[in-house]
Amino acid sequence: MPEILPDRVASPLQTHPLPPFLMHLTIPIASLDDLPQAAAQVQAALGEHKIILLEGEMGAGKTTFIKALCHQLGVPDYVSSPTFALVNEYRDAQNRPIYHFDFYRLDDPQEAINIGAQEYFDSGYLCLIEWPSRVGALLPANRLLLTLTVTGPSSRELRITNEQ
């Protein structure tokens, strides 16, 4: 049985998947210039996870990070927040869909059900979900939680938590 490690900080060159037994990975982001490298580390850590939750205070950079991650995944389109549409669809470099949700303005989880959120979550395609706590009961159990914490005017800490 592998040892469960409580936490670790990613090195700049670390690009391997987050092992299922590892509970946390922390990636320091000193500035916007570090976003591509952080996105590459998250891409490598995704493994088989398709449900990616993004938490952080307003203005922490959730959408900005999603833009960097989508760029890393080969999305050629402009990536923007689906705040009013609730979901945007992009295509990665292999023409697979990526679904980007922003549930900030959701008044009731029923709104997510009405747009077919559960079908998106069960599609087997990557779902990037901002403000997931607003639809917590609808989310599959196997997921990664990315928590962005503001640590300075332009610096952030990105913590990946395996929620299997």
Structure, explained:
The chain is an alpha/beta fold. The chain has 4 helices and 7 strands; from the N terminus they run E-H-E-H-E-E-H-H-E-E-E. The chain has helices spanning 35-45, 62-72, 109-114, 117-121; strands at 24-29, 51-55, 87-91, 97-102, 126-130, 144-150, 156-162. Helix 1 (35-45) packs across helix 2. 32% of the residues are buried.
Q: Which helices and strands, and how do they pair?
A:
Elements: E1 24-29, H1 35-45, E2 51-55, H2 62-72, E3 87-91, E4 97-102, H3 109-114, H4 117-121, E5 126-130, E6 144-150, E7 156-162
Parallel strand pairs: 2-5, 2-6, 4-5
Antiparallel strand pairs: 1-7, 3-4, 6-7
Bulk shape: globular
Secondary-structure content class: alpha/beta
Strand order of the largest sheet: 1-7-6-2-5-4-3
Run of helices and strands:
EHEHEEHHEEE
Q: Low-confidence segments, ≥5 residues, pLDDT <50?
A: 1-16
Rounded to the nearest angstrom, the distance between the terminal CA atoms is 17 Å
SS strand fraction: 25-35%
**In which range does the helix fraction lie?**
10-25%
Rounded Rg: 15 Å
Number of strands: 7
Mean pLDDT: 87
Number of helical stretches of at least 4 residues: 4
Taking the sheet with the most strands, its summary is: 7 strands, mixed
List keywords for this structure.
about 160 residues, about 20% helix, disordered N terminus, 4 helices, seven-stranded mixed beta sheet, alpha/beta
